[in-house]
Design brief:
By secondary structure, the protein is mostly beta strands. The chain has one domain (about 20-85): Immunoglobulin-like. The chain is about 10% helix and about 55% strand. The protein is built from one helix and six strands, in the order αββββββ. It has one helix at about 5-10, and strands at about 25, 30-35, 40-45, 45-50, 55-70, 75-85. It has a six-stranded antiparallel β-sheet with strand order 1-2-6-5-4-3, with no helix packed on it. The mean pLDDT is about 85.
Length: about 90
């Protein structure tokens, strides 16, 4: 079965040290799809933070809400201004 993220990771051999164990897809700053999270740490309209295997991700913006949450995926909607990855 074709997996978009696996294809991208496989073709980016030059940056092996930059390949993470999670996936983020930002759609025009209004929707952020996350695959591979390990739980929320902060949930507010301006900040959403969550754990990943290699560290933590912090998303900042305005009027953000968590519209979907499963055991390893989430969907964040709102005005997403900044996404930072801490390892």
């Amino acid at each position: 079965m074709f997996n978009f993220f696996d294809e991208i990771k496989g073709k980016s051999q030059k940056c092996k040290d930059k390949i993470f164990d999670f996936n983020l897809v930002n759609m025009s700053g209004g929707i952020l799809y996350v695959e591979g999270h390990m739980g929320l740490t902060i949930l507010s309209p301006s900040t959403i933070a969550f754990k990943v295997k290699s560290g933590r991700v912090v998303v900042e913006g305005q009027c953000m809400s968590l519209t979907e949450l499963t055991s390893n995926t989430m969907l964040i909607e709102g005005k997403i201004q900044k996404t930072e990855i801490f390892s």
